[in-house]
Structure formats: structure tokens, C-alpha cells
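Annotators were shown the component list below and the corresponding predicted structure, then asked to write short factual statements about the assembly.
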Amino acid sequence: MLRFSAVGVSDVGLVRATNQDSAVATSGLLVVADGVGGAAAGEVASARAASAVLETAQRTRGPLPVVVLRQAVESAQKAVALAITEDPARAGMATTLTAVLTNGTDAALAHLGDSRAYVWRDDELIQLTRDHTWTARAVDRGTISEDQVQAHPWRNVILRSVNGDEGTNADVLPLALRVGDRLLIASDGLTDLVGAAWLERLFAEHDDEALAQALLAAALGEGGRDNITLIVATVVPESAPEPPFLQVFGAVAGAAMSQSRA
Ligand code: CA
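Structure shown to annotators:
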């Protein structure tokens, strides 16, 4: 049996006025959502989507993680659609969603948008997600090269997201995790500024707690032009001496606080 130990951080960065990212970490679930939309709608999109995934995972015990995550994506789409119905000024808001879930035996990954998941195994960093962006598709089709992505004007154009449209097609895949694997789930505020080779070096140098801080410092050092959200987790045996936990970061943490004040 396995579960996660996790360290997370969500930072507004050095340029943006608000943090529209959300993240959730529990001993079985890791979620990052990066919201977009004016008039605070991006915060609402990422917070509602992350909450919907958490609620679905907590409520749905029994089915394989891949089945639970499919339901979780559906429920995130419904939550965003409902939030737009509540306030039509939110129309057009959307969020990325990258989530890893384990039930202790099996694990799965769900992904929409340009947040990313990586696994560090045998001293090597492997990207588990494919960006759902215009530029990633253009690279696949050979119309632009990998080197042209960073400077491309359509770099931030996302082709798939949680936008309230139930037809949106998420990648939901089983994930073969083993004890000792280290995971990174992050918004593009990190991965746009800190490349794979740099990520790999920081993984080699730091344990999870120090790594989370080093990753944030690296993105801020590169200008922090976007919100920076990341979860670093290690797959540990179920018997590891750490109680279950629930950590929330970014917009979803603010939403939880304003609900409890209301
Ligand atoms: Ca972002």
C-alpha cells in the first residue's frame, strides 16, 4: 500500500495582482489548477474545479482511481458551469486541471491544459503530461520547432481546459507509481521559467521540503511573471509514520476562508 507525503506552495509572483492558481494535497490526491478569466473569475474557476475534484475523491471510494478521476473531471466541469450560471460576468472563465490520485494500490493521472506533472525516478525526471496548447500541437505537427515555443506569441493559447463544457476531453490515464517516486505538479508560472534540465538539477540536490522552496525561488528569480504553484510529493509506504493531511493553497485556500467567515 502506498500514499503521498507532500509539500506545496502557491505564490502570486512578482507581476500579477492576484493569485488565480489553486492546489490541493492529501495523502491520496494531488491537484493543481490554473485559472483564467477577468473580474476574479480565474480564481473562481480554479477554486471550484479543485474543490470538485477533492469532493469527488473523498466521496468516491471503491472504483479504480482512473474511474474516480473521470468522474472528478466531470464534476469540475459542472462546478465551473454552475459558477458561470450564478454570475454570467464569469462567462469565458476556465482552468487547467492536473491531478494524481491513489487509492493505496492503483494510481491515475487526469490532465487538461498546460499545468504539468513530472515523476522523478532513478535520478531522472520524466514529464507525465502533454501540454494542451496550440504550440505543443504545432510542434507535434512539425509546423514549429521546440526552440520556437518560448518566444511564440500563441505560447499561452490553451486548447483544452475545464471551462464548464462537459464535452471537454481530458487525458485520464492509469499511472504505475512505486515507493520512492517523487512527483512534481506545477502551473506554467514555474515550468515556463524553469526548464527541465534545471528542474532535474534541483530534484537531485534537494529533499521535498527544500525542493519546493528552491523551485519557487528559481521562478521568482527568473521574474515571476505569473502565479507560481507547485506540489512536490513522494510516494511512501502506507505504514510511514505521518497522519492523513489536507493542505490547500492559492485561490481555493482563500475561497475556503471566505466561506468559513460567511
Ligand atoms: Ca498560469
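Statements collected:
1. Residues 34, 187-189, 226-227 surround calcium ion (CB under 6 Å).
2. The longest strand covers residues 2-11.
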